[in-house]
Fold this protein.
Amino acid sequence: MTLKIHIDESAAPYEQVRAQIAAQARSGELPVGYRLPTVRGLAESLGLAANTVAKAYRALETDGVIETRGRNGTVVAAAGPAAEREAAAAAQAYAERVLRLGLSEEQGAAAVQEALRAAYRA
């Protein structure tokens, strides 16, 4: 994730953060489930106050662009109909489980393909 804040711009810094993250999420540059930096971490890397980044994150959450999962951090939310959001959340949970099990990306994808084939043949 790359953000650039321009102090001399007319848009407030929090709005620049909000707009850039929203644009990157819409374009797919930040995929669904992408874990965003902590408020404090992003504020430090951008040279902004933590409250500025927190305000941007709150606005993004209100807009449905990101979601906070407590101790699991803040991630890019799924966009679109509820079924697509639910599928994206299930896929994210599956990806995290595959990673914890120590399987490769290819092994995880192969398991999904096989499960989908079996489900659609039934």
